[in-house]
Amino acid sequence: MIPFYDATAVRAALDLPRLIEALRRAFAASDIAAPVRSAHEVGTPETPGRLLAMPAWRPGDVVGVKLVHVFPRNAERGLGAVQGVYLLFDGRTGVPRAMIDGDALTNLRTAAASALASTFLSRPDSAVLALVGTGHLIPALAHAHGTVRPIRRVLVWGRTAAKAATLAARLRGEGLPAEAAEDLGAAVAAADIVSCATTSTAPLVLGRHVRAGTHVDLVGAFTPAMREGDDALVATARVFADTRAGALREAGDLIQAIASGAWSADRLAGDLHDLCAGAVAGRRDAAEITLFKSVGAALEDLVAASLVVEAGPAP
């Protein structure tokens, strides 16, 4: 029987500093094949849903695929928007090695990728983190950014004030200096790092609120129809992505800015491979506004899943 690693096992296995460093090495080496994922609309107008298939492999070593659903209205059912499973196979025989909880794996590898980007793009003295959203990914982002920067204040904003207050209390219980923020614009203006993870189709992080020296981490918009940052932000910032191909195909923040004429694809400064391999420079000065656009990369899943299995047998 294929061993199954549940969410508890995944969280126990994926130490954030170790995962961030593993992603750094993998993006620099570029020895993992990871085609742009396939996406299919599987929901209805009343309950929209999207199925993503994300394969990746290191030839002769390991093969993996994540099957993940994104149902934005799951919050109404008390569920996370992201639901899925990861399958890991032996790269020499194709024999299944493990099945892994996809929600926990996705949250941790996504947060680790954002933290990895932050090591290149945020100011080393960044102390104030603004979190936009209250979904299942936000706590992982809070801890990941706090792993790489000296965060002394965490501002949590959500469309529902009660949810923001509840999440801030949870983060305080986990050792983070968190507080709920009532005004989104004020929270963004106060932040050194803004991390946004929502399913919004309208801009939330506006360029006029972002002060010089800020790093903006846009995670949630993963289709051309979704968006978290406005044209002014994208046009002002120096923009990076997790993968160039994925971002220019799926990132609504960038695709919509291109369509409006506010930005152009040739202004994408680089991706995580470029940064980790030293091919392009990250932040160039303390006043620069930087933007990292994450849409998700199958390489990240494969690296994280491998670490889970290496940590020991499933409980």
UniProtKB/TrEMBL annotation:
One of its GO terms (molecular function) is ornithine cyclodeaminase activity. Its EC number is 4.3.1.12. Keywords: Lyase. Coiled coil: none annotated. It comes from the Bacteria. SUPFAM superfamilies: NAD(P)-binding Rossmann-fold domains. Pfam families: OCD_Mu_crystall (PF02423). Belongs to the ornithine cyclodeaminase/mu-crystallin family. NCBIfam families: PRK06141.1 (NF004793). This is Ornithine cyclodeaminase.
